[in-house]
UniProtKB/TrEMBL annotation:
Organism per entry: Cellulomonas persica
Record bears the keyword Protease: no
InterPro entries: ADC_synthase, Chorismate_C, IsoChor_synthase
Gene3D superfamilies per record: Anthranilate synthase
GO-annotated molecular function: isochorismate synthase activity
Name of the protein this chain belongs to: isochorismate synthase
Top-level enzyme category: isomerase
Length: 462
């Protein structure tokens, strides 16, 4: 693995050599002729088909690095082996990451026999929420990527060399990874702020809204988990993908989770963002939850929170788009733990395709949205720094992947946790809540607990 902070291509002894070939995964025929079926439906993939391929920690293939994943409903990308790693920091972290990736690509030799979004060269990234955070950001170029999309699958290998090697073989690259072992019992402790202390943080946030310092602020907290056995990230990813299939299950550099919120997907000039804000807990009873969905859809407090988030995304996309579509009314997204108000904002990038901003540049322009920071953005960010009492690190920052043409997908790292490279028993879980004038500290604490459920379940053993 090479860790580079600047001018990566100049320091590479040879160009990046990339080869993508079609693959025969379950539910993903290697030959396009065999798919899609005549009834128009796509073959069902198990949500963990891709995740099952990830090598075990400590194995030669894992290369000492955390697994890479971006998976939803069985489609997506998994990657392993750290061929290149770029660490970035500060306000320029996104631009630095983009520059590093472009420099590598400028010297790449690519043979892509599949030609779909996610084939050819691919890099994964994860970035700190706050430009002042020591967590900065990282871009990882894996040695191996396996992808699946709409019934087709592929294998990409990336090396640094002089020429294309032989056709890569999945069986040789993967072997038969052992199933992840349970992390055993998990104990929980306070994070940077205790639960009681966080109620006071929320109360301070409400006071700031009522005083007119901000219209909305999103406040977050962390809890510390300790697993009996070292956490195998694959264990958590498989449980997240099964339990939260409508979310994007991600893992980059030890930041993992299942986010319901897509910051931006950019594909062939079409931009999509799934905006969430406004939440109600589920009860576990379907009839009661339907009634709660109706309450949420009409709650002025939640609709206000949501409106700020949608406006911030639409406003940030406008300069790049020739047209945008912003739904007038949100829909209710049903997750196993909570219900959210959700809006899918779309746009068409303006100008010539070669001049389109990359998906990461769009993510940088959108970040931080009012769903994770507040309104107005700068005042909310300042308030968060003053009262939240913790470094969010990469929680609530952009996480995802991009390819050689800049297209890609970036989620907001929510319902997430950060593992520790130094201590494989330690996991830091995060959750946050949008605060407006009508918020109540006890209700927000309960909401944050509901938002911790996906990661608590993912690292649990039952
Ligand atoms: C900040 C988080 O959620 C955001 C996304 C959806 C709904 C939210 C809310 O209703 O407060 C938050 O804005 C989190 O899950 O940590």
């Amino acid at each position: 693995m090479s860790t580079l902070t600047s001018a990566p291509a100049e320091r590479l002894p040879h160009p990046l050599v990339v080869r993508t070939v079609a693959l025969d995964l379950p539910g993903a025929p290697a030959t396009p002729a065999a798919a899609p079926p005549t009834d128009g439906t796509l073959p069902e993939a198990d949500p963990t088909d891709l995740l099952d391929l990830l090598p075990a920690p400590g194995s030669e293939a894992a290369d000492g690095a955390a697994p890479l994943a971006w998976v939803r409903r069985g489609d997506g990308l998994v990657g392993w082996g750290e061929l290149l790693r770029f660490e970035v920091a500060g306000a320029e972290r996104f631009a630095q990451a983009e520059r590093a990736w472009r420099e590598v690509l400028a010297h790449a030799v690519v043979r892509d026999e599949v030609q779909l979004p996610g084939t050819g060269p691919v890099a994964f990234g994860s970035f700190a929420f706050d430009e002042h955070s020591a967590a900065g950001g990282v871009v990882v170029v894996p040695r191996v990527v396996v992808g699946r999309r709409g019934g087709r699958a592929w294998l990409t290998t990336m090396t640094v060399g002089a020429a294309l090697g032989p056709v890569p073989d999945l069986a040789e690259l993967v072997g038969a990874p052992p199933a992840p072992a349970s992390p055993g019992a998990v104990t929980y402790g306070d994070g940077a702020v205790t639960a009681d202390g966080w109620r006071d943080v929320v109360a301070a946030g409400i006071a700031a809204v009522r005083d007119g310092e901000v219209d909305k602020v999103v406040l977050a907290r962390d809890v510390e988990a300790r697993t009996e056995h070292p956490l195998d990230v694959r264990w958590a990813l498989q449980r997240l993908a099964h339990g939260y299939s409508s979310c994007w299950t991600f893992s980059v550099d030890g930041m993992l989770g299942a986010t319901p919120e897509l910051l931006v997907r950019s594909e062939k000039g079409l931009v999509t963002s799934r905006v969430l804000a406004g939440t109600i807990r589920r009860t576990g009873d379907d009839a009661a939850d339907l009634a709660r969905a109706a309450i949420l859809a009409h709650s002025s407090k939640d609709l206000e929170e949501h409106e700020y988030a949608v406006r911030s995304v639409a406003h940030a996309l406008e300069p790049f788009c020739s047209s945008t579509n912003v739904p007038d009314v949100p829909f209710v997204l049903h997750l196993p733990n909570v219900l959210h108000l959700a809006s899918d904002v779309t746009g068409v990038l303006g100008g010539e395709a070669h001049a389109h901003p990359s998906s990461l540049a769009l993510a940088a322009a959108l970040h931080p949205t009012a769903a994770v920071c507040g309104t107005p953005t700068q005042a909310a960010a300042t308030l968060i720094r003053r009262i939240e009492g913790m470094d969010r690190a990469r929680y609530a920052g952009p996480v995802g992947w991009f390819g050689a043409d800049g297209d890609g997908e970036w989620g907001i790292a929510l319902r997430s946790a950060q593992t520790s490279a130094a201590d494989p028993h330690r996991v830091r879980l995060f959750a946050g809540c949008g605060i407006v004038a009508a918020s109540d500290p006890a209700a927000e604490l309960a909401e944050s607990e509901a938002k911790l459920v996906p990661m608590r379940t993912a690292i649990g053993s039952d």
